[in-house]
Amino acid sequence: MRAYLLSRLGQTILVVFLSLTAVFFLVRLGGDPVLLFLPMDIQAKDLNEFRERLGFNDPLAVQYGRFVGRALHGDFGESLRYKQDALGLVLERLPATLWLAVAALLLTFCVAVPVGVLSAVRRGSLWDFLGMGGAVLGQAVPGFWLGLMMIYLFSVRLGWLPTGGTGGPLHFVMPCVVLASFYAARMARLTRSSVLDTLNEEFVLTARAKGLAERVVIAKHALKNSAIPIVTLAGLDTGQLLGGAVITETIFAWPGIGRLTVQALLNRDFPVVLAAVFIFSVTYTLINFVVDLLYGWLDPRTRAGARA
Amino acid sequence: MRKFVGRHGRGVLGLAIAGLAVLAALGAPWLAAHDPVQSDFAAGLKPPGTPGHPLGTDQLGRDLLARVLYGTRVALFIGLCCVLLTAVVGGLLGLLAGYFEGWGGTVLMRVVDVQLSFPFILLALTINAIVGLGLRNIIVSLSAAGWVVYARVVRGEVLSVKQRDFVHAAQALGLGRARLLFRHVLPNVAPSIIIVASLQFAQFIVAEAAISFLGFGVQPPTPAWGSMLSESRDYLYVAWWLAAFPGAALALTALGINLVGDWLRDVLDPKFRV
Asked: Quick one: which of A73, A77, A92 has its CA closest to A272?
C-alpha cells in the first residue's frame, strides 16, 4: 500500500510539473504581456524598465528556473491586473467552484443512476425509450445554449430565478442544472449499459435462484457490481466538470476559478493563468486518486495489496 | 424490417440530420436570400416571421437565416479540418508508438497521459488564447488538444494486432516495414479510427462554439454559431430568437453526428469504449 501511495504521489508531481512547464513555455511564446498593460504612447525606455522589473528581459532558461523555484514555494507571482498574489486569488475563488461542482455531481448521480437502472431493467419499454432519448438529446445540447435558454425562460419571462451571481440557494439552480446536464446524460447511458452487462452474469442468476426479491437483486447485486465503470466515468468527468465550470461560471457570473481563468486569459494575466493551471491539475489528480481508492472498496480484486 | 429499424434506426435518423446540415452548408449561397454580413440598420431586431426574414434579424439588421446557414458552413469546416488533422497526426503517432515499442513511444504516451489529465475544453481554450484568434488558430488549438485520443486508442489496437498470425506471416514473407504497417496493420485499426473520428466530430464543433462564445476563437463578423450566441446575450431581454436559432442549429447538428457515431460504433465494434 505504501509503495502504491508513493508511486501515485510521484505520478501526481510529474503531471503537475509537466503541465506547468507546458503552459509556461506556451505563454512565453505567445507574446509580450507587458505591452498590453501599459498605455499605447509609452516610451521605449520606460517599457524596457518595466520589462526589466518583471524579469522579462532575462534569457528564457533563467526565467524558467526562477519560475520553477518560486512555484515550489507556491509563489506564482503577482496578478498583473489585480496586484494581488496570484495563487491566493485563485484559492479565494476555489470554494465557489467546488460547491458548484459538488452540487452538480450530486444532481447528476440522483438523476442519472435511477434513469439508467430503470432503463436497463425495463429494457425496450417506453421508459427506456424516453430515458435514453433524453440522454442522447442531453449529450447534444451544449451547456451554454441551455443556460441562455433557461435564463430567458426562468429569469426574463417568468422572473422565478436570478440571472446570475451568488446569494441564496436559488442562485444555485440554473448553474447546477446546466453543469450537470451533459454529465448526467453520459452517466445515464453508461449506467444502463453497465447494468445490462451485469444482469447477464451468473451471480445475478444465483441471487434470483436464492429467491431474493428483485429489488434486492438489482440494488445489492447488480448495481454494486456495475458501479466500477460508473465511478470511473464520474472520476474522469469531475475533471471535465471543472472544464465545464469555465463556461457555466461565465454565463451565470459565478465567482469561481473558471470565470477567473477566462478573464485572466482574456487579459493575458499569466501569473493567474499559471496558478489556475496548477490548481486544476492538482485537483484533477487528487480526484483520480480518490477514484482509485474507491475501486478497492467496490472490487476487492483490484486492491493494491491483493495485486502484490 | 422491425429488426432493421431497431438496429439501424438511429443511424438513419443521424445520417438524415447530418445530411441536412451538409446540405445547408453547401447550399448556403442559394438557400439564403441575404448576405450574412450585410447590415441594414433600418431593419434591426425584427422578430421571426417578418416578410423577407423568416428567422428575423439581429441588432445590425442582418438576416438571421442567412447567418445560421453560413454558420453551418463554418462549424462543419472547422469540425472536418480538426477531425482530419487529429486522425492523421494522432493516428500516425499511435501507429508508430505501438509498432516500435521504444523509448519514443513511452515518452509519447506520457505526454498523452498528462494531456488527458486536463479538461479538453480548458486546454483548447488556453492554447487558443495564447496562439491567437481567428479561424486557422481555432483549428490548430482544437487539434492540438484533441489528437491524444487517437494516439492512445490506435497504439493500444496496434499492440494487439501485431501479435496476430497474419502479421507474423507477412513478416516471414519478408515484407518491408512500411508496407507491413500501412497495408496490413493500418486496415485492422481503421474501424477504431473511424469510431473515434465520428465521436470527436461533434465534440470539436461544440467546443469551437463554446470557445467562440467565450470571446476567443472565431471573431465577428464571421457568422459562427458560438460568436452569434455570445452577441445574443446582450439582447436576450428583447430578442430571444438571436439565442434560440443558432443554438438549436448547433444542438441539432451535434445530435445528428452523435447518432451516426453511436451507430457506427455499434455496427463496427460494439465493445468499443473511448
From this structure: A77
The β-bridge partners of A108 are: none
Residues of chain A with C-beta less than 8 angstroms from the C-beta of B233? 148
pTM of the model: 0.85
Q: How many contacts does A have with B, using Cβ atoms within 8 A?
A: 119
Distance from CA of A233 to the nearest CA of B (A): 11
Give the Cβ contact number of residue B220 at 10 Å: 13
Specify which residues A85 forms β-bridges with: A78
CA B150 to CA B95: how far, in whole Å? 9
Peptide bond into B221 cis (omega under 30): yes
Asked whether B167 and B185 are in contact (CB, 8 A), the reply is yes
Per-residue pLDDT of chain B (274 residues; tens, 9 = 90+): 566 666 788 888 989 999 999 998 898 888 877 888 777 777 777 788 778 788 878 878 788 888 999 999 999 999 999 999 999 999 999 988 888 878 888 888 888 877 877 788 888 988 888 888 888 889 999 999 999 989 988 888 888 888 888 888 888 888 888 888 888 888 888 888 888 888 889 999 999 999 999 988 888 888 889 889 988 888 888 888 888 999 999 999 999 999 998 888 888 876 665 4
- Nearest CA to A197 out of B7, B271, B157 is that of B271
- Residue A12's identity, in one-letter code, is T
A274's grid cell:
499559471
A28, A144, A262, A282: best to mutate for the B interface, most B CBs within 10 A: A144
Residue carrying C-alpha cell 501511495: A5
What is the spatial distance between Cα B231 and Cα B243, in angstroms, rounded to a whole number? 9
Query: Is residue B233 classed exposed, middle or buried when 0-12, 13-18 and 19+ CB atoms within 10 A define those classes?
Result: middle
Measured distance between the N- and C-terminal CA atoms of chain B, rounded to whole angstroms: 31
| ipTM of the shown complex | 0.83
Q: What span, in angstroms and rounded, lies between the C-alpha atoms of B32 and B229?
A: 20
The three-class DSSP label of residue B63 is strand
Residues contacting B255, CB < 8 A, separation 6+: A136, A137, A140, B14, B17
For residue B129, list chain A residues with Cβ-Cβ distance below 8 A.
Answer: 30, 265-266, 268
